[in-house]
Amino acid sequence: MKKIKFLLFIILAFGALSCGKKGDDEKPKVAVVISTLNNPWFVVLAEAAAENAQKLGYETKIFDSQNNPATESDNFENLISSGYDAILFNPTDADGSISNILKAKEAGVPVFCMDREVNSNDAATAQILSDNYSGCVEIGIEFVKALGGKGKYVEIIGLVGDNNTWARSGGFHSVVDKFPDLQMVAQQSGDFDRNKAMEVLETIMQANPDIEAVFCGNDAMALGAYQALQAAGKADRVKVFGFDGADEVVEKIDEGKIVATGMQHPLVMAEYAARYADEYFKGKRDFPQRVPVEVELVVKENAERFLKK
Amino acid sequence: MNKELLKKSQSLLALFALCLVITLLSDKFMTTTNLWNVLRQISVNVCISVGMTLVVLMAGIDLSVGSVLAFSSAVCAGLLKSGLEFQSFDLFVGFTVLGGVLVALLVGLLMGLFNGFVITKFSIPPFVATLAMLTIARGATMLYTKGIPISNLGSSFEFIGSGWLLGIPLPVWISLIVVLVMVFVTKKTTFGRYIYAIGGNEKAAFLSGINVNRVKLWVYGLAGTMAAIGGVLVTSRLNSAQPNAGVSYELDSIAAVVIGGTSLSGGVGTVTGTVIGAAIIGVLNNGLVLLDVSPFWQQVVKGGVILLAVIIDRKSKGSK
């Protein structure tokens, strides 16, 4: 009995200690942990998240995980020990990042996932997700429409070890594979890279000069594919589809050079995440686990709405 | 047949064998368009790898080439796009294509010289010094571009990467000139002989009166310049500078150097060998895509070929 009392005392003491640390009216600190800053899209997401949190009056800092769950783990350890109070988080890996989130959870730091999800329902406080799969289902439907349900096409996928690559490819194929007359003549990786995608398509066109469409797993690759087609004098015959909503692609859609892309909304996701953290600090605890942020289809008819002036 | 010739014909033989296999598997390989594609695609790696060859000949290594490529590419694009503005003097300086390219090459040269300076002045191992530069130059690229591509640089600049001259793509001309100049430098100049001497035995080279540090400094400077040439080519082909351009290019260029028969311990190897090495990698990349091999397998196959090349290289050296 004595032992239990002693244990209880210890626990209470520690509880009191960790409460005492935050007792004063010091403003909470918010960390933004981003999968990579080596890609413009994620730079926008990270900066928007930091700006939103700053606007709400919090001190923020961005941590770059360099697409590496191990670096991410170091980031989490560092920021927990330096007293951050919430994490706006863009995970590197759906499974590999779970243990990092749990580390934060144990330390009493809430984690709000942005854009990419983790395969767990009780690790993160909330996950604000861009629905890559459904977004590419939309692209798939547009793709079938544009091709009239038949023809040869090429798919250029992103980094083969990235879960967004497969979510996008999966959504696209869930529609397109129902049409037996749509024949995929090549599926190659462009590593989400403009130059690589261009070179890969140059080569594919040697083996398959009669393709009618190219679906690319992101917009950088769609631009590379378009350049390869343009150089081969096929840009007006072969239809290009992308994903992300990059400004350059939206312009090309408006000019009728690229058919469609899926517009993701990093700014919306960043705003949600920052607001949730704010609400958490004010005492709210019941957040929906998954908040899908819709991916909008951009085609020639509505491209003007998305153009940056 | 002398030994060097034998070794060179070995990698050349490997290249022919590879071409033969792919030709048998796909009738699209041996077409003029495809071969021009391959040559244009390898031109960037050829430029970088030729610079890398000089470094490796001195028993050094340059891990920073991919990042130096990205930074010079970004600076080039930035100057072409928006020039330089000195607000305090109310002065705006615009850049012509030539101006932008020259500044890019200068940036590459300076970053290379900085590598050489750190390596010789503080006797830091090249691996460490250039590893640091890899991160610094990548970070500088991110700072300069704010992580966003710089695009639409004008059609005259685009011509460098996608134009043709006398029926040959311009990037192929450029890489050819780079190769010829460097073959001349390594074979016919004292500077070239110093490089081999330092790689063969640095102490002996020093004792025989060669200014080892100065040669090293300029070799790293040259490697940086070559990376910048590669940067101009990539930027102009895409008509856009990508902040993540050139990631892991150092590995492709080291692979080209090693497959081409240059010894990582220095003193042995040739520029032409490296060109064959780069061609092998390029043909392999092209063939694997032509045959629509799964992207998962491609990496395994590429690694296997590098391994095989080095094993053969070792064997031929062991039996001399």
UniProtKB/TrEMBL annotation, chain A:
UniProt-listed CDD domains: PBP1_TmRBP-like
Major location category of this protein: other
Cross-referenced Gene3D superfamilies: 3.40.50.2300
PROSITE patterns in UniProt: PROKAR_LIPOPROTEIN
Signal peptide: 1-18
Top-level taxon of the source organism: Bacteria
GO molecular-function term, one example from the UniProt record: carbohydrate binding
Compartment(s) where it occurs, according to its Swiss-Prot or TrEMBL record: Cell envelope
Alphabetic keyword roster: Signal
Domain Periplasmic binding protein span(s) in chain numbering: 30-284
GO terms for cellular component: cell envelope
PANTHER family noted in UniProt: D-ALLOSE-BINDING PERIPLASMIC PROTEIN-RELATED
Family membership: Belongs to the bacterial solute-binding protein 2 family.
Name of the protein this chain belongs to: Ribose ABC transporter substrate-binding protein
Organism encoding this protein: Jiulongibacter sediminis
Lineage: Bacteria, Pseudomonadati, Bacteroidota, Cytophagia, Cytophagales
UniProtKB/TrEMBL annotation, chain B:
Pfam short name (any one): BPD_transp_2
GO CC, alphabetical: plasma membrane
Membrane spanning stretches: 50-80, 92-118, 124-144, 164-185, 217-234, 254-284
InterPro entries (alphabetical): ABC_transp_permease
One Gene Ontology MF term: transmembrane transporter activity
Subcellular location: Cell membrane
Entry keywords, A to Z: Cell membrane, Membrane, Transmembrane, Transmembrane helix
Keyword Membrane: yes
PANTHER family per the UniProt record, alphabetical: ABC TRANSPORTER PERMEASE PROTEIN YPHD-RELATED-RELATED (PTHR32196), RIBOSE IMPORT PERMEASE PROTEIN RBSC (PTHR32196:SF72)
Protein name: Ribose ABC transporter permease
Source species: Jiulongibacter sediminis
Gene: rbsC
